[in-house]
Each structure stands twice: as C-alpha cells, then as structure tokens.
Amino acid sequence: MGSLDQACLTGFICRICCDLNKIVIHAFSDEADKIKLVHLMYDFLGVDVYLNDNLPKTVCLACAMKLRTHYEWVQMIRKVKKNIDRRRNSDSEEPNQKSEHS
C-alpha cells in the first residue's frame, strides 16, 4: 500500500472524516453535482471546497450517505414545522372569524 502522501495526491482521503477509502466521490464530478455534495458540505458542515485548494476533493460513500441522510432529516423537520405553523395560523384565524359573524 502507498504512503499517506500518495493517497492524498490520488484523492483517496475523505474530506469529511479523513479516512483512507478506495471508493470515493470526487466533489466536482457529475455524481457529486447530482447530489449537490459541495453545497451540502458547505450548508450543513461549513466546509468550503475549492478546486485550487490543497485539501482532498473526495468524500467517502459513508460520509456522503450520512450527509444526504442529515439533509433529508432537516428537510423533514422543516416540512413539519411549516405544517405546524400553517395549522397554528389557521387555528388562530378561526376564532376571529367566528366572533366577526356573531
């Protein structure tokens, strides 16, 4: 097996967990674009990824899956909050409407 320096050059170090991996997603690949990997890394982890930085541009599948799961979880929470807010607003409007018609 090669050295850690060589692994970094060939892109097998995960940008998120820093583990060596044989199967990774390159941050600027078509596959990464489909799942908005760079966007998710910035929004949920505060990690900026640039083509010209000296840091790994790859993410292991385990981290990519965790990041995607976290994104879906946050989306679900936002949807539920929106529904709760909508119900709360409609419930608060109903008593006002009843009192106007009385």
From TrEMBL:
SMART domains: zf-AD. It comes from the Eukaryota. Gene3D superfamilies: 3.40.1800.20. Zn(2+) binds at C14, C17, C60, C63. Residues 12-87 form the ZAD domain. PROSITE patterns: ZAD. Pfam families: zf-AD (PF07776). Keywords: Metal-binding, Zinc, Zinc-finger. InterPro entries: Znf_AD (IPR012934). GO terms for molecular function: zinc ion binding. This is Zinc-finger associated domain (Zf-AD). The keyword Glycoprotein does not apply. The keyword Iron-sulfur does not apply.
